[in-house]
Amino acid sequence: MAGIDGSEENAGAVVTPDSLKRALGLGLKAANYLARNDVWSFFDGLSDLITTEPTLTNVNDFRAVLVLQPVFSIPALPPRAQDNRPRIRPLDRG
Questions:
Q1: Domain boundaries, the chain
Q2: Cβ–Cβ < 8 Å for 46, 23
Q3: Which own/partner contact pairs does 15-22 have at CB distance under 8 Å and 24+ positions apart?
Q4: Residue 42 above 90 pLDDT?
Q5: Distance between CA 37 and CA 90 in Å, rounded?
Q6: Distance between CA 8 and CA 22 in Å, rounded?
């Protein structure tokens, strides 16, 4: 049926900067839930599941990520050397 995503009632979960800290305070170890492919129980334990009524639409998956500060930086790649290889041109069949 359109507008129902998967076999569960939730439409996803909210992750906040304090999610892992709250999880540890509740004795929830994220790595254990990931190893069992059971993030539903993890976020249910945090009360962070998003639950909606069926929308009767088919909008596929939506993910939003907000990055306020870079977590790490990627070093710049060195400039590419000039490519002096001869070019192969197609034959003129005119």
A1: 1-67
A2: yes
A3: 15/48, 16/48, 19/46, 19/48, 22/46
A4: yes
A5: 53
A6: 24
Mean pLDDT of the chain: 75
- Decide which of 49 and 75 is more confident: 49
Residue 1 — very low, low, confident or very high, per pLDDT cuts 50/70/90? very low
- For 14, residues 6+ apart whose C-beta sits below 8 A from its C-beta are 43, 48, 50
Exposed (0-12), middle (13-18) or buried (19+): which is 46, by Cβ within 10 Å?
buried
Has residue 93 got a pLDDT over 70?
A: no
Cα dihedral 71→24→19→62 (10° resolution): 90
Region of 60 please: left (phi>0), alpha (psi -120 to 50) or beta: left
